[in-house]
Amino acid sequence: MKAKKGKTVENLMIWTLCVVDRKYLVSGNSKGALSVWDAQFGVLIKEFNEHEADILTTCLNKETKTVYFTGSNSLVCTIQLVQDEWKLTSKFRGQSHDINSICLLKYNLI
């Protein structure tokens, strides 16, 4: 995919995708942007530019409509759908290496 930035054309790689409630498509790319799209019409709703490096993976918590995303710069961020608006809710850097995969574990305490 090629994206126009000003008058130049740059190569852009989409590294990760996830679908939220069949309504939103979330993509992470090689320019460090996480984009939220309207899944039906393909319209960009919001873009988050928290990363300065590739976003390699996303993980979805369906119950809270929260998307976790991370990548080459080891920053883990979360966005959450709050009253029909996507908001950045946290940033965390716990280590210094690339993160290629994340998963969400659910457990019950007795």
Q: Write down the CATH class.
A: Mainly Beta
Residue stretches low in confidence (pLDDT < 50, at least 5 long) are: none
Rounded to the nearest angstrom, the radius of gyration is 14 Å
Q: State the end-to-end distance.
A: 49 Å
Number of DSSP strand runs: 10
Query: Which CATH architecture would you pick?
Result: Beta Barrel
Give the strand order of the largest sheet, numbering strands 1, 2, ... along the chain. Answer: 3-4-5-6
Apparent shape:
globular
> What does the main sheet amount to?
4 strands, antiparallel
Structural class: mainly beta
Secondary-structure element order, N to C: EEEEEEEEEE
Kindly report the average pLDDT value.
88
* Count of discrete domains: 1
Strand content: over 45%
Number of helices: 0
- Helical residue percent band: under 10%
CATH topology: Thrombin, subunit H
